[in-house]
Amino acid sequence: MKKHPAFHRTELLIGEAALKKLAETRVILFGVGGVGSWCAEALIRSGVGHLTIVDNDVICVTNINRQLQATAKNVGKSKVEALKVRLLEIHPDAEITTLQKVYNHETRREFNLAGYDYVIDAIDSLSHKVDLTASAMEAGVKLFSAMGAANKLDATTIRVDSIWKSQGCRLAKFVRKRLRQRGATGDCLCVYSEELLPVADVKPPDGEGDAWSENKAQINGSMVHITGAFGFNLAGLVVQDVVRTMSLR
């Protein structure tokens, strides 16, 4: 991939070799909602040249408060396809592959995780997240995972650490428990928050299932300054790892 003038300031910071490596890097991102959409944009703005985005959902009006591609005119459109349009407007030379499908235990064999340099998990579902985490560990690929970004207000409590060392996150606790039950022995870095707020159990109002989500038993409040920060941290982990790898050569 040819050098793009848009990344001149990136090159000034990380150097030509690392920028070239980012252009060659292959990333697959699962989930392009409040966390994943911002992660995707940060990856593309950082010069990642090959990005596969996976999500089976369509844009809902209640996504507008926190998801990058969610606008009034995009309601009802595929999340991955709407996001692809945005990403190519930023970096037309990037290879963006969209997969409008769900990742779960039944579909896991449809994704060749070993074919990517990095796997990023921004999935909401606990069972799907655990299965992806275990699968990535088994495949020996580098995985960066987002834990719970809902019910958070204080961005200064966001941390990055091993999935086995994260503290104060209910979702991470459940992920660890299920990984132990599966006998998983690998590790991955995760983005999480130590903030502990009361967990609201809010269900869609009567007659408004479509506007929320008929597929979710519980809906938690979330805001863009948190979900965006989670996504940027995930993208940063990829960039930092590429730069670190190049510096060791």
What does this 3D model show about the protein?
α2 packs across α7 (224-247). Mean pLDDT is 92; it is low at 207-214. A seven-stranded mixed β-sheet has the order 3-2-1-4-5-7-6, with helices on both faces. With 249 residues, it is an alpha/beta fold. Helix content is 36%, strand content 14%. The radius of gyration is 18 Å and the shape is globular. It has seven helices and seven strands; from the N terminus they run ααβαβαββαββαβα.
Highlighted features:
single chain; 249 residues; globular
List the helices and strands and how they pair.
Layout: H1 8-14, H2 16-24, E1 26-30, H3 36-45, E2 50-54, H4 79-90, E3 95-99, E4 118-121, H5 126-139, E5 142-146, E6 158-162, H6 170-182, E7 189-193, H7 224-247
Parallel strand pairs: 1-2, 1-4, 2-3, 4-5, 5-7
Antiparallel strand pairs: 6-7
